[in-house]
Amino acid sequence: MKAVAIAVALATPVASARADDGRLLDDSALAVDKGGPLVVDAGFVTGMPAGLPSGLFAGIGAGIERTCTCWLSYGARLSWDEVSASSEVFTVTDQELRARATVALRRDVGRAVLALRLGGGTDVVLEDRVRNGGTRAGLTGSALETHELAALPAGDVAAVVGLKIAGAWRFVASGGPNADILNGSFHGGWTAELGIGWQPR
Q1: Cβ of 74: how many Cβ atoms within 10 Å?
Q2: pTM score
């Protein structure tokens, strides 16, 4: 009996080790990498356009930030979007390039990163305005279509939530109000972004 017990005891760790070798996930598969001071992210953006009084734009955006303390970071963001709107007279298409310098208060909470980000910069708007039915009426040139380019001072505030997935990768979601100066007056709106972030060592 003692011989059988010894044989079972010796065989059990071997079987467990073989089972462990076959696992798809080990203990470090979802480990969080603290990462270095630089964080890069990119994703999809939506919100209210800068050059139009209504509607929703869709586009892409990216950003880079550097953490200089455990609670402060600074960086830059760039996004591009497009939106179209129609009236009885015109069809308007705006392409917008949003550039921001940013500073943020941030805090790591377990796997999450919470931040309040302030951004300031410009919204560069290229607007194409086409008169509806103008081609059938024989209109050409500026009577049919006009193009305008404008750079609007702009700023925004965004709440940011990052969720560390594995290694240096994370999900990032942000959103909040923004404003620009259009024709001498403030034009308010909001933006939101959902994407993926990467924080290398």
Answers
A1: 15
A2: 0.78
